[in-house]
Amino acid sequence: MLKRKNRLKAKTAFKATYNNKNVFSNDLMILYVGKLKEDENCPTRVGFVVSKKIHKRAVVRNRIKRLMRENIRLILKNNLCNNINLYQSLIFTAKNEIIDKDLIEIRKSILILLNKIANKKI
User: For residue range 36-46, what is the model confidence (pLDDT) as tens digits?
Assistant: First the structure.
C-alpha cells in the first residue's frame, strides 16, 4: 500500500495539478505534473484517476488503480526513478488500453512517463 504521506487526496490539490498544465502521455496513461518542489523535505504526492469511460464496473476501475498504486510504491521504495521526487504532485489518468495489461506492462509505461518528465524542462 502506498504510504499516507505520498497520497494525493484533496480536491484542491488535484485542481492545482491540473491547472499547472504540464501533461505527458503514452498509450496506457496520461501524467499530469505539478509544480517543482521548493522544500526538499515534503514528499511527492501521487493521485490516480480511472473514469467510468474506461469501464463501467467499479471492480475493474479499482483493480487498475491498485496496479498503478503498487507500481508507484515499488518505484519509490527501490528508487527506480529519481525524477519522481522533484515534483509536489503527480496524477496518473488511465486510458482505455490499460484494461488488459498486467503489473509489469503498467510499470514500463509509468517509467517511460517519468523519464519523459526528466528529459523535458518544466
Answer: 888 778 888 99
